[in-house]
């Protein structure tokens, strides 16, 4: 909580982990403040409060919370009704698949940041293999069926980015996974997901990928492909 009495989420404008918490706050109609920092130039006040120097950080009641999945659990408990399934076993299973969603966020990030075509192919394969166990878990429009749950908030940022890159490059990262494809499309069309990113997110995200270089000024693999499309 800050001077306004609202919870404050410390953010970087392209961060998928922050997006998870923004979606949760929007779904729960909680008023909050969003403070953006530059991760390339972290302010001292942020380094003082953030144990790992990472966003998101939630400032609430003079305390600091970190780790997006934990922040979301806290927001869920303190702003009922819960977005988790009621049954403890189902809830525990959802938490396990939320963890898988975090791994897939990292797999997609590594693929998008790959320096060479070979790195890209390796990470692309890991990402697509990572979807395999998920396909059979999806119960309906959303992960658990008709209701949007915390697990949907956790996974939506994966698809926000993946669908942008697919569309820009004509790729298909969900080939063979029709349930995940339908889930992804339902998530990116959801109001809370649409409003969880900055205006102009698509262009800013693609520009960020286009600027990725290595060994001085060699464009990274996707940067090169995006430049070809331009
Ligand atoms: N497991 C963390 C991951 C957070 C994370 O990696 N955030 C990135 C931005 S998307 C960050 O702050 N990176 C800054 C750094 O590593 O220096 C979570 O779920 O909150």
Would you kindly provide a brief summary of this structure?
This protein is of the alpha+beta class.
How would you explain this protein's 3D organization?
GO terms for molecular function: glutathione transferase activity. It catalyses: RX + glutathione = an S-substituted glutathione + a halide anion + H(+). Residues 87-215 form the GST C-terminal domain. By secondary structure, this protein is α+β, with helices and mostly antiparallel strands. It folds into 2 domains: 8-78, Glutaredoxin, CATH 3.40.30; 88-204, Glutathione S-transferase Yfyf (Class Pi), Chain A, domain 2. 56% of the residues lie in helices and 9% in strands. The protein is built from 10 helices and 6 strands. The protein has helices at residues 16-27, 44-49, 68-78, 88-113, 117-135, 150-169, 178-188, 191-194, 201-210, 221-229; strands spanning 8-11, 33-36, 57-60, 63-66, 213-214, 218-219. Strands 2-1-3-4 form a 4-stranded mixed sheet, covered by helices on one side. A two-stranded antiparallel ribbon has the order 5-6. Helix 1 runs parallel beside helix 3, helix 1 packs across helix 6 and helix 6 packs across helix 7 (178-188).
How many E strands? 6
Order of helices and strands: EHEHEEHHHHHHHEEH
Question: What is the makeup of the main sheet?
Answer: 4 strands, mixed
Distance between the termini: 43 Å
CATH class of the largest domain: Mainly Alpha
Report strand order across the widest sheet. 2-1-3-4
Percent helix among the residues? 55-70%
Features:
single chain, 230 residues, alpha+beta, Glutaredoxin, Glutathione S-transferase Yfyf (Class Pi), Chain A, domain 2, 2 domains, 4-stranded mixed beta sheet, two-stranded antiparallel ribbon, 10 helices, 56% helix, 9% strand, globular, binds glutathione, transferase, GST_Omega/HSP26, glutathione transferase activity
């Amino acid at each position: 909580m800050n001077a306004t009495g609202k919870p404050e989420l410390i953010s970087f404008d392209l961060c998928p982990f922050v997006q998870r918490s923004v979606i949760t706050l929007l779904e729960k109609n909680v008023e909050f403040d969003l403070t953006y920092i530059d991760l390339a130039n972290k302010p001292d006040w942020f380094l003082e409060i953030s144990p790992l120097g990472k966003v998101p950080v939630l400032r609430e009641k003079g305390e600091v919370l970190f780790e997006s999945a934990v922040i979301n659990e806290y927001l869920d408990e303190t702003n009922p009704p819960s977005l988790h399934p009621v049954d403890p076993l189902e809830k525990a299973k959802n938490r396990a698949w939320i963890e898988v969603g975090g791994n897939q966020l990292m797999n997609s990030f590594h693929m998008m940041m790959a320096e060479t075509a070979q790195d890209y192919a390796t990470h692309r394969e890991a990402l697509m293999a990572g979807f395999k166990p998920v396909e059979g878990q999806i119960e309906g429009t959303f992960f658990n069926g008709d209701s949007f749950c915390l697990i949907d908030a956790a996974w939506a940022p994966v698809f926000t980015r993946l669908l942008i890159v697919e569309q820009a490059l004509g790729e298909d990262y969900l080939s063979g996974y029709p349930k995940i494809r339908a889930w992804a499309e339902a998530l990116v069309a959801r109001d809370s997901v649409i409003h969880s990113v900055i205006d102009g997110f698509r262009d800013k995200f693609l520009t960020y990928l286009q600027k990725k270089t290595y060994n001085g000024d060699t464009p990274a693999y996707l940067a090169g492909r995006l430049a070809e499309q331009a």
